[in-house]
Amino acid sequence: MQNDIYAYDRRKLAVILCVIGIFTVIFLSTTIVATAIVFPPLLPQNTQQAPDQVKTLEFKGAALLYNTKGRLGTYNESITYFDKALAINPNDVYALTSKGLAVGGLGKNNESITYFDKALAINPNDVYALSSKGLALARLGKYNEAISYYDKALTINPNSLVAIKEKEFTLAAAAQNTNSTNTNSTLESHKANSWVLDTK
Fold this sequence. Notes:
Layout: H1 2-38, H2 46-66, H3 72-88, H4 93-105, H5 109-122, H6 127-139, H7 143-156, H8 161-176, H9 180-189, H10 191-194
Helix pairs in contact: 2-3, 2-4, 3-4, 4-5, 4-6, 5-6, 6-7, 6-8, 7-8
């Protein structure tokens, strides 16, 4: 009879342990899921690190772009940083525009416009991209188009010193130069600072 009591107690204990085990698994599972929902910043997420990585790459690229002093290799090196930023976030307007400026610094004005157009497709009111596109158009001798982009930039930010300065220069270059050869040489002499000024 005593063996029957022990057998009954063992079965009872086994059932109790199974129930406790099931409740423990359910409790832990719901706790993990709840933690993931309520406290996502505590979990490792590459997407939260991406904006910081993009900004770091942009700063490195901008430092090279803004300190080129006419060295073509520095333009190319800055492009590699903007490419890395764009690999993480292909829609980053600043990286697209800055890459366009670096490409323009290499004398590839038509190609630079494609980057400004991509940036403006994402944010048509970005003063940096508008002014940069105006600069590229001016370098191509398309003064009226260039001025229209400076005007758009100035409508958004009337205090944009770069848009004001570049518009004035473009108007002066168009008025002073009657043939494209003189215009291009005048614009080339203006190249050093034009490509690297931030309009923000």
